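User: Predict the structure for this protein chain, please.
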Amino acid sequence: MLAKNEDGTFELKEKLGDSNKSFSYHLFLKHTIKEAIDNNNIQKYHFTLLRNLYEKTANFLEYPQWSDLLPDDKQAYYNRIIQFTSHSTLSNEEVAEPTEAEKRIVTFLFKHLVDNKYWKEVQNDTV
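Assistant: Here is the predicted structure, written as structure tokens:
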């Protein structure tokens, strides 16, 4: 894991056990959300997946809170995600199909996470 030191420098710290394999789940979440965006098939559960992706990315990068990765108006986006990922008391209160505005929020927040260099994927060009 990459750790930021007090002096602003970084160092790689070895993590033993399952933590070495956990990043594949980040990639799975990223792929699932991107596929839904590309196919214009965003459902309410994609808000939960997006929140989970933010949480796991923040944890991996050692941010104190996942909301630290949100765009400028962090509290507004945080409230919006919490609103869509909270559990209602009755299952019939759930609306499966989000509005177009809600879909745009998923797309915007996903692209924000990817485009702001929180992600850097290296292609292995092995022969």
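The first strand starts at residue 2 and ends at 4.
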